[in-house]
């Protein structure tokens, strides 16, 4: 998505339009999300549900990358998964993260 399309998508996705009061912060968020529609949709859903300012969400986003990689690297209990099998979803996320880097 180009910047204008991303801004429009974010605006249409947010229930609280007042969050868009600072165009600099809005552009920073969209740049951080690399204008990807899925990322914008996920961020919008979070902002709508948690009702925090975009600046606070940006802080969470910037501080989360290392935490996410660490979390996805850990094994966790899942009673619906067969014993002794890897967590394939987490494994594919890690592969994707490594490729993006």
Task: Record keyword descriptors for this entry.
101 residues; mainly alpha; 0% strand
How would you characterize this protein structure?
The protein has 101 residues and is mostly helical. The longest helix has 20 residues, at 54-73. 67% of the residues lie in helices and 0% in strands. The mean pLDDT is 78. It is globular and about 50 Å long. It has helices at 3-13, 23-32, 37-50, 54-73, 88-100.
Note the topology.
Elements: H1 3-13, H2 23-32, H3 37-50, H4 54-73, H5 88-100
Task: Provide a concise account of the structure shown.
With about 100 residues, the chain is an all-alpha fold. The protein is built from five helices and no strands.
Rounded to an integer in angstroms, the radius of gyration calculated over CA atoms is 16 Å
Q: How many helices does DSSP assign?
A: 5
Gap from first CA to last CA: 21 Å
Strand content bin? under 5%
Largest sheet: none
The total count of strands amounts to 0
- The global form is globular
Note poorly predicted spans.
Answer: none
Order of helices and strands: HHHHH
Give the proportion of residues in helices.
Answer: 55-70%
Mean pLDDT: 78
Report the structural category. Answer: mainly alpha
